[in-house]
Specification:
Low-confidence stretches: none
Largest sheet: 4 strands, antiparallel
Radius of gyration: 14 Å
Number of helices: 0
């Protein structure tokens, strides 16, 4: 991504996962109310210098809507799921090639 670009992920009111291109550190116009949104540094092996995303695998609910995603990086995979809040977990630190 270009300098200053970001990926915005959010949980919808129907618990689906929303994904959009961002422009760090500005929130999109539809991010309302602004105080309900935040930029977060991800924990663990993530944060600054996590590297480029090498794969994206959607997670679908029973009716086929996307309610999560697995992001693959060089040394780990990150699972993000939508619900009452957006949750993330490192699912493995050495993905299989």
């Amino acid at each position: 991504m270009a300098e200053g670009a970001s990926v915005l992920l959010w949980n919808g009111t129907d618990w689906t996962l929303g994904v959009a291109r961002g422009s760090w550190p500005r929130l999109p116009g539809g991010a309302w109310p602004a105080e309900s949104w935040e930029f977060a540094v991800l924990p663990g092996p993530l944060g600054e210098g996590a590297g480029e995303i090498s794969s994206v695998t959607p997670i679908r609910n029973r009716v086929g809507e996307i309610d999560g995603v697995v992001l693959g990086f060089a040394n780990f995979r990150l699972e993000l799921t939508s619900g009452e809040s957006l949750c993330w977990a490192v699912v493995d630190e050495q993905p299989e090639e």
